[in-house]
């Protein structure tokens, strides 16, 4: 016989839970609001319908209440699965199929109305001691057992979540589990014990009571109504990529950010892709890689080595493309002459020693030193503004005249240096002569007559026993030998025409000259005060 007091209490608790969740709906976080409302509404309908079954006297009313119990209980089951998928960050599994399964009780009850012959397989109503008692058929028993199994899986999943939840929220998750255990136990007794039919309203009442307590506490402490912060959630939401590896390079786990940064286009990430990213940086160090999409990623490696556990390597990836671009821009600006856009002496001091070491015994390398003849006369006669125009015009013209791979450096004033990788002494002399000839054809308009300038050049080729300073000094001595002789043609430094120990293969060519692009940002960073014309006047 059913316990009337329990049934009446089930009705009251179910109504109270439904009223409370309606009042709290707008205070719940958007992510949890719908699932909490479905669970609370399902538990309330289940509890109220189970409690009212004792107080009705017609077969039709009993069938309706049993239908509501089925719908409410199954709504709790489906919504609980929904909640677990949200908590474990597997919301992508929330498909239409899951919600179709959730509508099965409604479909079954509709089928009973259309096909009464199916009713004995689902439920029968008998009179026992003056009361109408529902007798469940095989369909309802299968549904009840399935629901109990699913709820057990849900509880086990929540225990796993609690184990990986941060310490500050772990008691909350355990409390939620503990408050729902009595209802799950009552549900199990109802299924396994033949006399459990007298406790049909106990399971939904306990479940509704647990929800009611949780809602009342959350009403006073809104911070409790949050998804638990688990390791899975941290890995999913952190912007940096995280890759956990074994020492042999096998990937144990990754987060979405790491897959988007490092493994784009890959269908599997079971092994660290050294062919794409290079070797894993040593623990405590970092490296930078450029992906196929042009992004710059910084990799930082740490080693987790605790007693009794296998050593693990954690690689953290951070997108530093903007920082790297800014750094490259600042480095480029610092190495350029602000007026002409050519490289400056700081760049030469860093670049030439490196190039000398690379070229020694591998390929030819020559340096040209040049300056503008009688440039002081231009400044004194026409002013420094005209002198600046002459320097800018000569720089632009030399950049167009020099071959690919040449690097133009403004040393200061009217003095320039040209680095010519892959060129021996005769070839470098021809290149310098061609640049000087083109610059001599320039004319600069003034208020009087147009003026033109000539260049003096000196060339030095790298020899095996030379360092960067000696190479530069040799070109400088050759320049002043030319100036002393008052000749316009370039003259090489003393020594052999070409060092026989050198081999002439040309390295990978650099862009033509090394001025920034004009009109695409270069003219804004290095404004020109005027450009010389071959036909006279300034453009």
Describe the structure.
The protein has 539 residues and is of the alpha+beta class. 51% of the residues lie in helices and 14% in strands. The protein has 19 helices and twelve strands. The protein has helices at 4-24, 30-52, 59-87, 96-102, 104-114, 119-122, 138-163, 170-192, 202-220, 231-237, 256-262, 274-277, 321-334, 345-359, 375-382, 384-401, 425-440, 468-485, 522-525, and strands at 123-128, 131-136, 241-246, 251-254, 286-290, 296-304, 312-319, 365-372, 407-412, 415-421, 455-461, 491-492. The strands form three sheets. A five-stranded antiparallel sheet has the order 4-3-7-6-5. A hairpin with a 7-residue loop joins β6 and β7 (312-319). α1 runs parallel beside α9, α3 (59-87) packs parallel to α7 and α8 packs antiparallel against α9. The radius of gyration is 42 Å and the shape is rod-shaped. The model is unreliable at 488-512 and 518-539 (pLDDT under 50).
């Amino acid at each position: 016989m059913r316990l009337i007091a329990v049934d009446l209490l089930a009705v009251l608790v179910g109504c109270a839970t439904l009223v409370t969740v309606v009042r709290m709906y707008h205070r719940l976080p958007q992510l949890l609001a719908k699932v909490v409302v479905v669970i609370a509404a399902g538990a309330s309908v289940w509890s109220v319908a189970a409690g009212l079954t004792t107080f009705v006297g017609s077969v039709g009313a009993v069938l309706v209440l049993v239908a509501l119990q089925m719908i409410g209980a199954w709504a709790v089951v489906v919504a609980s699965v929904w909640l677990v998928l949200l908590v474990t960050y597997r919301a992508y599994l929330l498909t239409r199929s899951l919600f179709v399964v959730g509508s099965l009780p409604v479909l079954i009850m509709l089928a009973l109305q259309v096909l009464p012959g199916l009713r004995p397989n689902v439920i029968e109503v008998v009179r026992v001691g003056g009361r109408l008692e529902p007798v469940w058929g095989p369909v309802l028993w299968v549904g009840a057992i399935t629901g109990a199994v699913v709820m057990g899986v849900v509880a086990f999943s929540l225990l796993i979540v609690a184990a990986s939840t941060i310490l500050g929220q772990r008691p909350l998750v355990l409390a939620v589990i503990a408050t729902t255990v009595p209802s799950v136990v009552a549900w199990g007794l109802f299924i396994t014990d033949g006399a459990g039919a007298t406790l049909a309203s106990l399971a939904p009442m306990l479940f509704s009571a647990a929800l009611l307590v949780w809602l009342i506490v959350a009403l006073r402490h809104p911070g409790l109504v949050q998804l638990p912060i688990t390791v899975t959630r941290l890995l999913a939401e952190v912007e940096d990529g995280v890759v956990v590896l074994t020492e042999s390079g096998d990937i144990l786990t990754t987060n979405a950010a790491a897959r988007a940064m490092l493994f784009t286009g890959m269908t599997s990430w079971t092994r660290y892709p050294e062919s794409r990213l290079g070797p894993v940086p040593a623990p405590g160090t970092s490296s930078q890689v450029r992906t196929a999409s042009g992004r710059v990623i910084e990799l930082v490696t740490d080693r987790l080595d605790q007693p009794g556990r296998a050593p693990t390597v954690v690689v953290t990836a951070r997108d530093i493309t903007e920082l790297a671009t800014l750094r490259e821009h600042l480095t480029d600006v610092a190495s350029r002459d602000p007026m002409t856009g050519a490289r400056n002496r700081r760049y030469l001091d860093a670049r030439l020693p490196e190039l000398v070491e690379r070229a020694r015994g591998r390929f030819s390398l020559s340096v040209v030193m040049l300056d503008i003849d009688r440039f002081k006369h231009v400044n004194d006669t026409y002013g420094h503004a005209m002198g600046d125009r002459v320097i800018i015009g000569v720089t632009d013209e030399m950049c167009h005249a020099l071959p690919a791979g040449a690097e133009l450096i403004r040393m200061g004033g009217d003095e320039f240096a040209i680095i010519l990788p892959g060129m021996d002494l005769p070839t470098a002399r021809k290149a310098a002569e061609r640049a000087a000839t083109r610059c001599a054809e320039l004319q600069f308009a003034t208020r009087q007559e147009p003026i033109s300038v000539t260049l003096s050049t000196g060339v030095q080729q790298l020899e095996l026993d030379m360092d960067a300073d000696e190479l530069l000094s040799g070109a400088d001595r050759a320049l002043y030998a030319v100036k002393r002789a008052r000749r316009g043609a370039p003259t090489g430094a003393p020594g052999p025409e070409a060092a026989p120990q050198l081999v002439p293969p040309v390295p990978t060519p650099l862009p033509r000259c090394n001025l920034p692009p004009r009109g695409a940002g270069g003219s804004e960073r290095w404004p020109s005060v005027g450009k010389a014309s071959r036909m006279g006047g300034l453009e």
